[in-house]
């Protein structure tokens, strides 16, 4: 069966590096999950501690989707955007608990594609690995360019220079050590967390004490006074779900860190279980406070609701602070992209579904060539933005949403299939079972399906659905070519 193929490949890798991968064999005679994880993570350094894992998990849930994208969502749905974030937050928790169950069954780097290979098919693993890699490359292109544009707020320098400088700095940090990546992400996330908590406290002060220009009108009644809680109707709220889901993309990044986490059995579940609290505070809490101080009618698409709120309060210094925070959020996303792309390429290469050259690691345990190749492609984004600014570049990034949600779909499908095998006694049960599964996973899949349908209705998001089949066709052709070259290879055969 498929699990036997993957674990044998993993143990072989472990042997090559001086580890025998010994352990108790599975019910089918295959090597145990622990041995598989040891082999696949061989060469990586478990340097990410609990503090860094927690902040990586928090940072993954807070990005430009909140700091910038929420403005468009508010203009489309009004205060009911809060409900959209709450419902989507529940779905995200279901996804993360499904991922947590898989991670505690077998914590490996590049986990999404690895689980897809084991529980769906080699082709599913191939598609998932390359699609998630592309997601971060495209995201990195846009984020580093966005970061460069934010720099023009303070200095009038060519945008491409800032973009180049940021790319080189983050690339260097990712090559030095995974510990430095974790430290950078910790402080990036700390800035974002501090900014949101600061905004919540300021709004709370305005509501209770009444200072600033908004003090006379601030009230929780603003949540329903201007046209009601659903001023654009239920349909308007539904059409914001794609914006909301985009804001949550990258929350699953904690799964990619599994192979380099200290004490993953303790730290990963703890990070995942705090997802509801993070969403409640940083999304729902922040929006409730902002919309209680400033009427939703004051917000416009393309303008950060945080900047707009500070302007309405008469706190002009807030604009500069928020610009710095948004810059940090963009750099954080690009930093995460460089980290994850190298790991995904190495995972594909280890399983024979990518160039073998990407399996190489530096002495510090970083995938040099995979990270370098991905960072080089991110630089193309700077050139694209220089040549075709505006809509042409924005249409490229729309693919990020659909490609990111593909990873979520695979996580849920794999968890459903894993749980079925565990219940039949074919695999050991995870020590971190998803509550309510598999029904919660089926609900999350149905919700994602609804969001994809809504994307097809929205003309602004429809372009991503046009690009997805083209990417799928390219992957299908590439897979067939690789399989034809090595038809008997373990990477392209599923054994039941």
TrEMBL record:
Residue stretches making up the Amino acid permease/ SLC12A domain: 53-486
Cellular-component GO terms for this entry: plasma membrane
Under InterPro entries, the record lists: AA-permease/SLC12A_dom (IPR004841), Amino_acid_permease_CS (IPR004840)
List where the protein spans the membrane: 55-74, 80-99, 119-139, 159-181, 193-214, 234-256, 277-297, 317-338, 366-384, 396-418, 439-457, 463-482
Name where it's found.
Cell membrane
Topological relation to the membrane, as annotated? Multi-pass membrane protein
Q: Which GO terms describe its biological process?
A: amino acid transport; transmembrane transport
Q: Name one Pfam family in it.
A: AA_permease
The record's PROSITE patterns line, in alphabetical order, gives:
AMINO_ACID_PERMEASE_1
Its keywords, alphabetically, are: Amino-acid transport, Cell membrane, Membrane, Transmembrane, Transmembrane helix, Transport
> Looking at the record, which segments are called Disordered?
1-41
Query: In which broad location class does this protein mainly occur, judging by the first location in its UniProt entry?
Result: membrane
Which family is this sequence assigned to? Answer: Belongs to the amino acid-polyamine-organocation (APC) superfamily. Amino acid transporter (AAT) (TC 2.A.3.1) family.
What is the protein's name according to its record? Putative proline permease
Gene source species: Streptomyces clavuligerus
